[in-house]
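Treating backbone geometry as a discrete language has practical consequences that deserve illustration. Part of our work consisted of pairing the sequence of a single chain with a tokenised description of its backbone. We regard such an encoding as a compact summary of how the chain folds. The amino acid sequence and the backbone structure tokens for this protein are reproduced below.
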Amino acid sequence: MQARVRLFASYREQAGGDRFDVALPDPAVVSDAVAALLAAAPALPRAFTPHLIAVNEEFANLDYPLHDGDEVALYPPVSGGVDARVVSERLNAAEVTDAVRRPSNGAVVTFEGTTRDSTNGRRVVRLEYETHARMAEKVLRHVLEETAARFGLSDAAARHRIGRVDVGETSLVVAVAAPHRLEAFLAVQYAVDRIKHVVPVWKKERFEDGEVWIGAACDPESHARHTAHAPYAAFLADREAATPAAVG
């Protein structure tokens, strides 16, 4: 079967291309794709082990099973750093923003997600967020690392609050920094979309007349359609098209 391996940032530069089409045995797992990549890209170090892996935009590991036509994305560590935390106390947006400020960054963009007072005409009393904190924090960090690699950022930070969040209070803060404003604006939107779709946090909306649980993630097909038509899609396509592709 066939799979496409995508490389970003320093991995792309080391390999001399950002896309490698590889032939794999059936069945195959991600480690088979990495072995095929090393054969197709001899410039990569023989001990190459990817820092972060995604298969069809779902975070994965070396034992993750592959199917014909899958896309395997490999992301390197961020040179500056990411700061991802899941907390129960009130969020301080200024603190998150300050975490990404650097003299080399000309643009800092911060998003705050707050509890609104109504949903579909029903009065909201409060929100309640629940998660497995260690797992959610790991996936949150993965989202920031992926965002940094795809948009060429060096710094990103996020805080997700769990527990009770009253109307007007903040449940999510995401801050990114970049040399220029365009990638900063688009990167923060991309990060928020990914957080909403893949980080395992569940939300209960409490209304004056009832309550409802809202799951953390949508199905992969809906997520793919959303990201394919989002404002950052053209920017990422242009950025990736400017990079030479290699076919194994």
Notes: Residues 8 and 150 are 7 Å apart (CA to CA). The first strand starts at residue 2 and ends at 7.
